[in-house]
Amino acid sequence: MNIPIETATPTRSFPEVLREHALDLRRDTMRILQINLGKLCNQTCIHCHVGAGPGRREVMTAATADRIIDWMQRYRPGTVDITGGAPELCPEFRRLAEAARAIDAKVLVRCNLTVIFEEGQTDLPEFYRDNAVELICSLPCYTADNVDKQRGDGVFDRSIRALQKFNEMGYGRDPKLVLTLVYNPLGPTLPPEEKPLEEAYKQQLDEHFGIVFDRLLALTNLPVTRFALWLKAQDKLEDYHQLLLESFNPATVDGLMCRDTINVGWEGDLFDCDFNQMLDLTMARAERRYLWDIDPEALRGESIATARHCFGCTAGHGSSCDGAIS
User: Fold this and answer.
1) Domain coordinates of the chain in residue numbers?
2) What's the CATH class of domain 14-312?
3) What is d(CA 208, CA 197) in angstroms, rounded to the nearest whole number?
4) Could you check whether the bond before residue 55 is cis, i.e. omega within 30 degrees of 0?
5) For residue 249, what pLDDT band results from cuts at 50, 70 and 90?
6) pLDDT computed for residue 63 by the predictor
7) Spatial separation of the C-alpha atoms in residues 305 and 282, rounded to whole Å
8) Which of 8-22, 183-197, 202-216, 218-232 reaches the highest mean pLDDT?
9) Which residue has the higher pLDDT, 50 or 2?
């Protein structure tokens, strides 16, 4: 379920703030193809911007995957970032990942860790390793209470077991098997500075569980879909929007992921980012387009579709799929 993009008249809109700083947000050359395989997930997290869960039925079909693979073979993106939901639960996941590796693209998978314990998924660690997939794994805290509050009872313990399994496979130890963790706040606050938090994660996880990893990304929760509904129920939605606005950092704009990422929905339609996809905010607010109908260079110079939630990516140190920006 979505809430309206603009829930009240904002003090200043995102385009207005960009103009105040003489900034123009337009698409650059594509660097990353990000594919969202749908909303099916084995978890139901409070902060989820997708609104994913076990009951969702939106999943990419084989026909759509075929057309995306044909496009990848033609335009050969350097990085393919696969997300969901739990993308691994989509039947087309492995075929897409293998097709991306076949064109020598770097493959990133947004993994929720516990998916490897689902029926039919126990060989996922071997699949990741054999295809040199870079894992980007959600672990919003290094303590059980905070993780379980946000992601569900028992998720922390299963996440730790998954990370230990990945370490056994070489992740976090072999330079070719990159293991990245993702932190996000429990509530309506900005994440702390990324580097000191990474050091605390490394110390705590190594000391208590013998877990090692390569880097930590600190991401801001964006007020869309499920997290927006939770904020609204707590009567904190407008305060959070105001916090994001007041924390705008112009130094983050050049590094925003929407500049060089093409985001593709589970039906093949195009968006500037995954957050816009969840709000059905199409590229440049134009007619719906599909990946197989475009040349990525033709998108260069297009204005990027924005709305109030975009303040989340530009608040504080910034937040993108690659973590802090400034």
Assistant:
1) 14-312
2) alpha beta
3) 16
4) no
5) very high
6) 98
7) 7
8) 202-216
9) 50
pLDDT of residue 285: 78
Phi, then psi, of 324 in degrees rounded to 5? -60, 150
Contacts of 230 (CB under 8 A, 6+ apart): 46, 47
Kind and range of the H or E run holding 131: none
Cα–Cα distance, 156 to 210 (Å, whole number): 15
What is the spatial distance between Cα 95 and Cα 103, in angstroms, rounded to a whole number?
Answer: 13
Task: Report how far apart the first and last C-alpha atoms of the chain are (Å, whole number).
Answer: 33
Q: Which residue has the higher pLDDT, 55 or 83?
A: 83
Residue 207 makes CB contacts below 8 A (sequence gap 6+) with: none
Residue 261 reports pLDDT greater than 90: yes
Q: What is the pLDDT of residue 53?
A: 86
- Find the Cα–Cα–Cα–Cα dihedral 208, 209, 215, 220, rounded to 10°: -70
Q: Which amino acid is at 201?
A: Y
Tokens of 62: 């084989």
**pLDDT in the model for residue 9:** 47
Listed residue (180, 205, 212) closest to 194, CA to CA: 180
Contact 10, 235 (CB under 8 A): no
Min mean pLDDT across 26-40, 122-136, 143-157, 267-281 is at 143-157
Backbone angles phi, psi at 318, to 5 degrees: 85, 160
Q: Is 219:191 a contact under the CB 8 Å cutoff? A: yes
Phi-psi region of 132 (alpha: psi -120 to 50; beta: other; left: phi over 0): left
**C-alpha distances out from residue 96 to 59, 76, 117, 150, 294, Å:** 13, 13, 21, 30, 19
Amino acid at 44: T
